């Protein structure tokens, strides 16, 4: 079960704060995933938003799915460990998936590759 992309607003703000790309329940576990076309999209502001959403929604897993190979990852080990610690304080496990990673959850599908300027998703 999953939701379509959701816009998130803060009560005191008029403009959209962020969005949720993927919020799904798989085999009794809840996943909060932000999809990025490249690792340039995984920066301090996006990490802060992910941490805030994880503290509110309390998924089992939260992280980023990036449509680029792992070799292009700009997050060093220390940054990844800090995110893991911050999420662990909320009882949430961190996920960082790249397009060429083996699937740690053994899902039968892969991260969708970029298709033009939009991302096409399928539930199948």
Sheet with most strands = 5 strands, mixed
How much of the sequence is in beta strands? 25-35%
* The CATH top-level class label: Alpha Beta
Helix content: 10-25%
Overall CATH architecture: 2-Layer Sandwich
Overall tally of domains: 1
What structural class is derived from the secondary structure elements? alpha/beta
Overall 3D form? globular
Low-confidence stretches: none
Strand order of the largest sheet: 1-4-5-6-7
Task: Give the number of helices.
Answer: 2
Q: Topology as H/E string?
A: EEEEEHEHE
Could you describe the 3D structure shown?
The chain has helices at residues 44-57, 77-88; strands at 2-3, 6-9, 16-20, 22-26, 29-36, 61-66, 93-98. It is of the alpha/beta class and 124 residues long. It has one domain: Transcription Regulator spoIIAA (2-Layer Sandwich), CATH 3.30.750. α2 (77-88) links the parallel β6 (61-66) and β7 (93-98). The longest helix has 14 residues, at 44-57. The model has no long low-confidence stretch (mean pLDDT 83).
Short note summarizing the structure:
The protein contains two helices and seven strands. With about 120 residues, the protein is of the alpha/beta class. It has a single domain, classed as Transcription Regulator spoIIAA (2-Layer Sandwich).
């Amino acid at each position: 079960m999953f939701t379509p992309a959701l816009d998130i607003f803060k009560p005191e703000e008029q403009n959209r704060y962020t969005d949720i790309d993927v919020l799904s329940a798989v085999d009794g576990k809840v996943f909060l995933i932000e999809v990025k076309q490249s690792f340039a999209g995984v920066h301090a502001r996006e990490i802060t938003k992910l941490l805030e959403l994880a503290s509110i929604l309390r998924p089992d897993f939260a992280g980023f799915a990036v449509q680029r190979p792992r070799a292009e990852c700009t997050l060093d080990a220390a940054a990844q460990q800090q995110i893991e610690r911050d999420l662990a304080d909320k009882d949430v496990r961190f996920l960082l998936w790249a397009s060429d990673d083996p699937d740690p959850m053994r899902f039968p599908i892969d991260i969708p590759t970029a298709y033009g300027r939009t991302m096409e998703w399928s539930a199948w």
